[in-house]
Every structure is written in C-alpha cells, then in structure tokens.
User: Fold these one by one.
Assistant:
Number 1:
Amino acid sequence: MADDMTAPLLSDSEVSANALPSCPFRPTVVILGSGDFSRSLAVRLVGCGVRTVVGTRCVNRIPLGLFPDAVELKSQEEALAASQVECVVFMALFPEHYSSLLRLQSALVGKVLVDVSNAAEINIRGASNAERLAELFPHSLVVKGFNTVSAWDLQTGAHDGSKQVLICGDNTKAKRKVLQLAQDMGFHSVDMGGLSASRNIEVAPLRLFPSWSRPILVTFLLFLFFYGYGFLRGILLPFLAQGHNFFYRLALDLVNESLPAVALVMLALVYLPGLFAALLQLWRGTKYRRFPTWLDSWLQCRKELGLLSFTCAALHGILSICLPLRKVTQYKLINTAYKQVKAGVEEPWDEVGVWRSDLYLSCGVLGLGVLSLLAITSLPSVGNSLNWREFTFVQSGLGYSALMLAIMHTLFFGWDFAFHIEAYSFYMPPSYLIAVALPCTVLVCRCFLLLPCISNRLARIRHGWESRNSCPVLQRHQVVANGTSQDV
C-alpha cells in the first residue's frame, strides 16, 4: 500500500503529453507616474505575471513598500530605455503634464501609449485628452482605455474582475495588444472603435447614474404631488376653514400616506410601456418598425422604475411598523379606551373592521414579498443565473401578481370609504383613489390583451408575421395558386 501511495498518478510521458501550453510572450509594461492609480495598476500587473517598470521624476521620494518588490522603480528616461520597442506605456499622470514628456518623444517612438485620463467636464469642447496626446506624440500609437476603472477596482484581485474596460484607438495592432492585456488582467475589454470615440469614453465616469436620472425625477415629482395634495387636503384646508391643527402629521403620517401611492403608480409605470408597445404592434401589424423614441427610452428604464417602486414600498412598510411607537397613537388609544369605559362598552368588536385590517395587511405583506423577489432578480448576478423563460415568468407573471396584490391592498384599505360623502372633504378624493386609477387601468388593459383573439394575433406578429398593409413585398406582389406572382 505504501508503494502504491508513493507511486505517481501519471507517468512522465503522460505528464509531458498533457502539460499546459506555455504562456505567450507578454511585453514589458511601463507606467509613467507614481500616484495611486499607478500603484494599483502595478499591483494588478505584477499579480498577472507581467514585468512592470514604473517611471517617475524622482525615484528617491517614493517610500519603501509603496510598490511591490517585483516592480522596477526607475526614472522616466531609464524606464523607457529598459523596455522593448513594442512595450505598452501607461500615461498615469494628469493631462496638463503631458507636455512635460516632450523631451522623451524620441524614446516613445513606436510605443503604445495608453491614455487613462478622464475629462475635466462633461461637455468636451475641442479634442479629447487622448487626441491631444496623439498630436503631441505623432510617432507613437495612442490608445484610450482603463479610465473607467478605479484604483479600487484594480486592487480587488488578479482575476476576479468582470468590469468592462472601454478601449479605442486608430491603430488596430496597438488596440488589440491593449485589449489582450485587459483580458489578462481579468477585465472584460470592449472595443469602442477609433480614437474619436475617446470623447464619449472620457466623460463616461463623470456621469452620475445616467440611467437613473429620469426615474428618480419621476419618483420625486410623484412624491411631491401626493405629499402636496395630502397637505392641502388634510392639513392646510382644515386649518384655514375649521381651525384644526394637524401639522404634526407632516413628519410621518403624510410621508407614510404618500409613499404607497408613489410605489403603486411607479409599479404601474413599469408595465404601462409594454402595453403601449403591444397595442402599437397590433395597430401597425408588424414588429419590424421602430418604436417612438419616448417609448423606447421608457422601456429601457423599467428596471430602475421597479427598484424605486420597491424602495418606496419598503419604506412604507417600515414606517407602518413604527406607527404604534408614536405618542399620537398612544394618546388615541387612551382616548378610545376612556370613551368606551364612559359609554359602558365592555368588549367592543367590529367584525367588518377586523376583516378589513387583516385583508389589506395580508395583501400588503404578500405584495411586498413578491416585489422583493422582483428586485432581487433585477440584480445582474441573480438574473444571469435564470434562463429567458424563468426571467420572463418572474418579471412579467409575478410582476403583474405584485401589481394586483398592491391594488387589493389599497382597495381593502379604502373598503367602502369611496362611496361615503365624508371621504371627499373639500370635494377632494382621498390620495389612494387617485393612486389606484392608473394601476387599475393597466390591469384591465392587460386582461384585454389576454383575450384569445388578441393574444394569438400579437403572438403571430412577434413571431414575424406581418399584415398586408405593413409589408412592402405583399403590397407589390400577390402569390397565386400556381406559384407565379403578379403585380397588384
């Protein structure tokens, strides 16, 4: 047994036959600059097995241990002299210092210069930093890239990154070299075309949540509307007309009334553009015509609208749990108990009120749970693990279930208040009646599209069928029984 344990599992011939291929030749990477980005980039390159040379103006000012031991620290002239002709040079310094490298113009001839800078402002006037660098060094090969990667992203390991690295350049060979280097570093490299694309790449890190600006604006305007409407109807007008002071409701009550209304309307806005798209395809009789720009933009921001709806619903749930902790609630309970004792009521019981509270609470909890599942599957790490049918079932099937539960939660809360004149104080309907109008319309339209005569036609259109009025070929030719065609 001991001999068996000490014997190799594979013979020498098998090891040589199954040995992994050797790593391809990797050129030396030179980093000009010794800042935070340079240090993080050097750590990443050394971890990938790339020879890295850092060129700085003064080597003696760099403290010991700042860079890994495998990094060669030299002056800028020595770093370029020690590298091959085909080496990659990262310009890890600010664009205003590019002109100080003109003395190294002869040493940079034929080398690939990677510009990692960002624009100073979103609206670029004139040439980009990469284009100005190409003008300063016309005999070098300038490639734009790695500006969308932060120093923190570079330090999070050698091969664990999935972040995109946008790269562009006019020289195909130089760009391919940088693309391969980004992949060796564990990033997902994306070829964006020529160097003129560097203008869009340089301003990309300056945009603050570009896909979230409109959904956040819509959410803010909806909250402002419902909060202002509730303030006018429930606080300001009663104070002016009757002298009742309800201003204490501004801090929590009014916020907790506005958040569910915003969440319900936002959830309806998630599925409303899909209904518009389906109706437009039915009317046109084809799927090959582009949607209007406003509808296309609306369809692309549905995930953000859904996540904001979930945020408002979650805040509404948390605030509702906090309601019994308020002093106002305690005072109301004491007053109610005092009135019951004074009236001689020993065991009050409201059958309708009990059913109403249980039903709207259960629907609200179930709706929030389904909405949480939608939010979780919206994350790329979770959504990528689902196939198309599973993702569609969650986002569409369960999504409409969440919308229906939210509508039931609202209707059970309102119960029959909508039919009482007391609910329309100052001739203004309650906030929940305004909020439930659009979701109910969306749900009715969805049921209309589920009719067999409508759903079958829509399925045929989405499978490529076109009506005669929408297809130019069918307008010009008509197929006859013998297989020939004639003009119409």
Number 2:
Amino acid sequence: MEKAVTPKLDMPLLHFTNSRKPNSIPSPILRLSSFNRHKKRSCLASSSRPGFETETMTTDSESHGAIMENSTVGRRLIGLAAAAAVAVSSCCDSPALAESLTIAFPVSRAREVTTVQRTLVEAWGLIRETFVDPTFNHQDWDSKLQQTMVEMFPLRSADAAYGKIKAMLSTLGDPFTRLISPKEYQSFRIGSDGNFQGVGLFINSEPRTGHLVVLSCIEGSPAYRAGIHQGEELIEINGEKMDGIDSEAAAQKLRGRVGTFVTIKLKCVNGSGTGSGIREVKVPRDYIKLSPISSTIIPHTTPDGRSAKTGYVKLTAFSQTAASDMINAVHEMENQDVQSYILDLRNNPGGLVKAGLDVAQLWLDGDETLVYTIDREGVTLPINMIDGHAVTHDPLVVLVNEGSASASEILAGALHDNGRAILVGNRTFGKGKIQS
C-alpha cells in the first residue's frame, strides 16, 4: 500500500463507489465531490465469514496507509488531505473507470485521536468489503462511519477514540468482530507466538485486596531460578510501587530486552496471613517460551493382562508453536513404546487456524480434506493436506467438551470425519466462523 504525502491541512478524504453512496449528508462538516477514478484495490482482508469453527489472527502490525487514486482530480484532492487522511475504496469488477464520491471529515486536534481516525476508516472499509452479512445487520453502514467520525472528533485520548470504534462494530451484532487495540494486540501476539522476553512470572490481581499476587513461575525461567514462589505479593518493580496497578500493566513492566535486569520487591505472607517478610530480587530478563503442550505416559494393563502404555497429550491453545511442540511430545512417547494416544482438547478456546491444520496433519496421511470454508457469496473452498505423513498410526481418542471451540473444532472434526480418531465428551462450542 502506498502512503499519501500530504501538507498540514485538516480534511481526510473517504471514497465511496456509486453503488453504496450515503443516502444523506447530515452534517455541514462534510464536503462532497465526484470524479472518475481508475480501478485500484488494497487487499487489507479482515473478515468474519461462515465456515468451520476456528479463529485466526494474521495481521502483523497496524496499518494506517492510504490508497492512492490514479486520476488527476484524485491526486489533487489527496494532496490537500491532512496527515491523517485515509482513502478507502471498493474494488471495481471491470477495469473501466468508475465514478466515486468523496466525503471529507474534520481531523481531530489531538494527534493520538487523529491516528485512531485512520484506524476507524480502515476498520470500516474492511467490514464493508468482507463482513459475512452484506446487510451489516440491516443498518446503513456508510452512515455509521459518518456518525462515528463526528463522535470521535472532540475526543482527546486514543483510548476514548478506540471506544467509539468498538461501539460502531458492536452494532453488527457479531461478538467475533471486534477491535483489538495496540496494547491488547501485543498481549495477543505473546500468546499466539508462544515466545516473549521477560522473567517468566504469571501474576494476577487478588480479587479481595487488589494486590498483585504471583500465580506461578515458568519452570527454568529467570523468576524460577531466583526462587520466586506462588502466593508472594508483588510490591514494587524497579522502585515503582504497584498500588493500583493492574496485572497487565505490571506484566508490561516485567517484560523487556534480553540481558537487561528488573528489580522486584516481594512480600511473603505466611499461611495464617498474620506475618510477612519483604525481600528484593534482581532478575535478568531472558527469552521465555510458552508451550501449549503438556504430556505424560499412562501405564495400564489391558483386559487380557498385558502391560501397555497410553500417551496423554493436553493441548491448551493453538499458538504458532503448537504443532512443533506436539510433534516433539509424540516422538518422545513413540521412543518409549507408547501403543495408543489420548489428545485432550477440553476447554481449548482455539487460536491460529494454521496451527490447527498443522496439528491435524501430524495424525493423518495423504491428501485428506481438513476443513471447508464458505464465503459470503456462498462459495465453498476445501482445504486439503498435500502428501501428508502421520507421525504415528496408533489408536487415538480425542476428548472435547463445551469449552472446545474454534481451531479445536477444526482439529476434532478433521480427525473424526477422516476416520482417524474417536471423539469422547460433550457437544463442542460451535463457533462456525473464521476471522482474519
């Protein structure tokens, strides 16, 4: 996507094709002009579409660019836009010129809100092009942009502006179409990537007192080696008191570049809650790996009296490391003569689509169909393996329950429908949509 080079004026331009012009212009702050433009499309795909039960996040970073128009008038108008200007356009089915409508909105005086205005236009455009329900829950989606932009104009903080986008998306009536703010996105990436730089502490706010409490340490992490224990209260980080600080803000302070240090002050409360001791620990930051896999071998005796081993694998989420961690766990158990497997997907909420498909291919051979997706035009697309080779052909049981959702349902469905596994448990969540 190209970026518009713009002087310091204050009117971002939004472009609509004739087929979906707003019916009315309710505010005097809008400026309209029509002109012809050449076909040009930006493929910023974000969709909620019917298909199988899964969820994916594929965006690597926020994008606030502009789609440059080819016509002379288009270049002139964009040249007059502010730094916040974003042009959103629909693609044309024909290379012929198509008339469009330009609507100008005032840019906020607060720079951080101006940045969110760009995100608003991008989010609106993605929904307009790819949302599964082309009626947008029976509402005028073009007018929603106008209304939200006007409401956002007087705001002074990015958080408040993001709230307006969330409110706009909520009118679609789809809980899976939502805005992930930059802070939330950073936390999401930590979960999906399975790696971060920090000390390896899980912390949470104690509901009764509001104090930050250590839930656990990741085994082998710097916090684990420093002797930090479950139940200790986190009082200070680098001399800053944690009173009134939530767990996410505290976690941000604990993360940092590998090789740097963080000084943590902890309060150890005894079992009765009457005595305590305060200590200070200087902990180095390191690469921390979050594995979604845990496994064990269950020895048992078969009905005919033979000794046997069953491998138990618990998969808690579909992060980028899920397939590689699972293949390592299965290889290790194969080396210990395991004869059968249990794959536990109970309460697994899903994650990355690709991770779910990759895990399915560890258990299947050939070119089996893993899942079908259906877009909003009703086009069905099968996703097949390509020359798959299963790690093991030993019998497999998959455990599921009401909390098994999204990519868990893709995996369970693929293994069951291809005759590879027996499903045991309760009816799963039933998400039925893919997000991008």
